[in-house]
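Recall the central idea of this unit: under ordinary conditions, the amino acid sequence of a chain determines the structure it adopts. In this exercise we apply that idea directly, starting from the sequence alone.
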Amino acid sequence: QVQVAESGGGLVQAGGSRRLSCAASGRTSSMYCMGWFRQGAGKEREFVANINWNGEGTYYADSVKGRFTISRDNGKNTVYLQMNSLKPEDTAVYYCNANVGGPTPYNVWGQGTQVTVSS
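Accordingly, the structure predicted from this sequence is:
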């Protein structure tokens, strides 16, 4: 099946920017959506953004609209999350997610990458 792996996390000053990457591998031909979730300490995992793989639709959580941009490179099977104007409340482990279609649709998750925003 499909596997995904995140990279790009780290320590960022408030107001700064950082770009996360998520590369998918495996049987990616039926993958139709990739996106990002995050989970802050002591909080539930929440949706951040996603993008249709074969279309142009993008969706964002209200908390990141206007600051984060999701994009994709189909040739590299990679999705990016450009994070601008970062706030301390953006501190979380960011997880990549891929939605895979076919006879038995499924989701696959990466291991996560830590983003820490200092005030």
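The CA atoms of residues 33 and 52 lie 5 Å apart.
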